[in-house]
Amino acid sequence: EDQVTQSPEALRLQEGESSSLNCSYTVSGLRGLFWYRQDPGKGPEFLFTLYSAGEEKEKERLKATLTKKESFLHITAPKPEDSATYLCAASNSGYALNFGKGTSLLVTP
Amino acid sequence: DVKVTQSSRYLVKRTGEKVFLECVQDMDHENMFWYRQDPGLGLRLIYFSYDVKMKEKGDIPEGYSVSREKKERFSLILESASTNQTSMYLCASSERDEKLFFGSGTQLSVL
After folding, report:
1. Closest chain A residue by Cα to residue B42
2. With CB atoms counted within 10 Å of each terminal CB, which end of chain B scores lower, N or C?
3. Contact flag B99-A49 (C-beta cutoff 8 Å)
4. How distant is the Cα of B104 from the closest Cα of chain A, in angstroms?
């Protein structure tokens, strides 16, 4: 059964304290691995798509990487405005995405 | 920018009522989706559509139906609302193999 598991469920960081969020997946025939950011009361907002092992993508303080079994979202020197829930999702059909339950990140000043 | 618009931000309904959630996208996307999001359960797919008048069941279709009469519009219907359908409902659209664009969500409360 296809599965996407994110860890940790919640993470609290001091401003400037770098860390990584993990997304492990068991999806046959992965077509894409997606990262989203979701603020409270809003819909998820797209961050990155990764297609093959070894691929990396960056945006401001965020960098996403992909291996054959997992993806990491590295957050470098986070700021309070990076506080949000980060969702990982995998696609194997070209249609719907299979989402993990998310990591809730809180960055304190 | 792609815009996915959900007709209501908050809805309060009574058990047994028929509920319509409307979603419109403005980018001529082939695919549209309905998810529900609950604390501790994450996003779960209810139904999706890959073409006009086409629909496919997702992981949790029971108690729901959908309608896609026009390419830009995808409706979720709760035939007889129940309290366990209280949730945040999210509509999304995409091209095949591409990222999903989400609406802002509808927080539905069934009393």
Report:
1. A101
2. N
3. yes
4. 4
A7 DSSP β-pair partners: A22
- List of chain A residues whose C-beta atoms are within 8 Å of the C-beta of residue B101: 46
* Phi, psi at A32, each rounded to 5°: -175, 145
Interface of B with A (CB under 8 A): 4, 31, 33, 35, 40-45, 48, 50, 56, 58, 90, 92, 96-97, 99-105, 107
Residue A45, phi then psi, degrees to nearest 5: -115, 130
The pLDDT tens digits for B25-55 are 998 999 999 999 999 898 999 999 998 988 9
CA angle B91-B92-B97, nearest 5°? 155
**Contact (CB, 8 A) for A100 and B40:** no
For tokens 């969020």, what's the residue? A21
Closest CA to B31 of B15, B54, B9, B8: B54
- Cβ within 8 Å, pair B90-A101: no
E strand spans, B50-86:
56-57, 64-70, 73-78
Both tokens assigned to A20: 């990584």
pLDDT digit string (tens) for A12-21?
999 999 999 9
Residue-level pLDDT at B99: 86
Task: Give the burial class of B4: count Cβ atoms within 10 A of its Cβ; 0-12 exposed, 13-18 middle, 19 or more buried.
Answer: buried
